[in-house]
What we know:
The complex is a heterodimer of chains A (291) and B (256). Chain A is built from 1 helix and 22 strands. Chain A has one helix spanning 6-14; strands spanning 18-22, 25-26, 44-50, 73-81, 89-102, 107-108, 110-112, 116-123, 126-130, 134-139, 149-151, 161-163, 168-169, 176-177, 188-190, 200-203, 207-210, 218-231, 238-242, 257-260, 265-272, 284-289. In chain A, strand 8 (116-123) and strand 9 form a beta hairpin. Chain A starts with 5 loop residues before the first helix and ends with a strand. Chain B is 4% helix and 50% strand. The termini of chain B are close together. Chains A and B meet through helix 1, strand 1, strand 4, strand 19 and strand 22 of A and strand 8 and strand 14 of B.
Amino acid sequence: xxxxxxxxxxxxxxxxxxxxxxxxxxxxxxxxxxxxxxxxxxxxxxxxxxxxxxxxxxxxxxxxxxxxxxxxxxxxxxxxxxxxxxxxxxxxxxxxxxxxxxxxxxxxxxxxxxxxxxxxxxxxxxxxxxxxxxxxxxxxxxxxxxxxxxxxxxxxxxxxxxxxxxxxxxxxxxxxxxxxxxxxxxxxxxxxxxxxxxxxxxxxxxxxxxxxxxxxxxxxxxxxxxxxxxxxxxxxxxxxxxxxxxxxxxxxxxxxxxxxxxxxxxxxxxxxxxxxxxxxxxxxxxxxxxx
Amino acid sequence: xxxxxxxxxxxxxxxxxxxxxxxxxxxxxxxxxxxxxxxxxxxxxxxxxxxxxxxxxxxxxxxxxxxxxxxxxxxxxxxxxxxxxxxxxxxxxxxxxxxxxxxxxxxxxxxxxxxxxxxxxxxxxxxxxxxxxxxxxxxxxxxxxxxxxxxxxxxxxxxxxxxxxxxxxxxxxxxxxxxxxxxxxxxxxxxxxxxxxxxxxxxxxxxxxxxxxxxxxxxxxxxxxxxxxxxxxxxxxxxxxxxxxxxxxxxxxxxx
Lengths: 291, 256
């Protein structure tokens, strides 16, 4: 029987029908990333994965939940420390891997993962409703010589993404320019969408208009589902979010399902707004099983 | 008087019965890091837990309304919980001794048979064993028996290293009610205890080391556990493996 109120939440947690985890995250080393600019989404993004098991940026491990749950695991609370500095915004977030791309050659350079998007959740009573995701590009090899310019479209001018409303969309030409000819490994940026668009259900094509120098300059394309903000206005503080009584926001910690196939996803900390100083966070995340 | 029911009840209990503050100081030597087959996060268990004392007057239980802790490693997190020894394995001889089952607690006025919110395998005596496979047979949160969790531990685990079992539970499981067996594939020395916890407080450390957490019962969305006399309150530290210190201040009001 699904949770119907506060008492159910408390009893379920006490019955072991919940989850509590305290993690050690790892992100880019100090000074290792390049700040965003206006033409590269304006927001510097850092992705922090589970420290143990991850070798960034090639081997990624997210925060581990209990294995193979059959019901929703609703987020109830989170805490994190801020060892980095004032003005950081952390998010508990889930990354869905949409695909990979090459930046060192022009033309259609995006390869979609095997899983079929959109990813689906029950939303507002509608089962299997597509999720709108924030598109992030994550450099797995640094660029060189020339700052790449990309477009969310095919080289022939065809659609490159499906927007938040399900419209197949031709991205504005050349609307994303990497901030530096040498944009550092593990730098991450929000991909610029067309005016009026707020997210993507899928990405189908990315054209490299201007290529990076060198060879093998690669990036991973993620769609991000934001779960909980852990904003911090000053450093050396901890921040706690109550998702039950402090503004109901009991999102499902379990990954959304792909339309078909199995999507690769990671539960992580995503920080937005500043270049990383090298310190990682220690988040704790808790949830309750919807039974 | 149910002190979990309202802040006013807690205040009344505090003024009538007095609160129970307790300062604890503890230290730990370096421990062994976890890996992806043994919990995904490194944990340490401070080996001097606190035993909830006998109560006086009309007090029948303790609600810990304030838990604050300081540790010297800014890159860590602190976990405080009611701890239950579910089983013990003596490595030499692969010998299992049963512990207790997770207790019954009153939650929002109803009697609830609890299961672990989080559960650890702790080396309480340093081990001599090369990447041993630890198998824990347990009863899960839904009373299914014969479930198994399997961890492959690092070699020669140091004393007080704690390994999170939760990621390695059987598919679909979220908690443990009881442990019926623990076995190990190899090893000549050491002791492993499986501890189940009901979480009282979680405290991320901050950059300057001191970390304070309140366990304000009416604020965080988590069960408010009444501790019984003789219950164990244990302290764990996550994310680090170095030696360290912790000081904690606990304060409780009495359930009557």
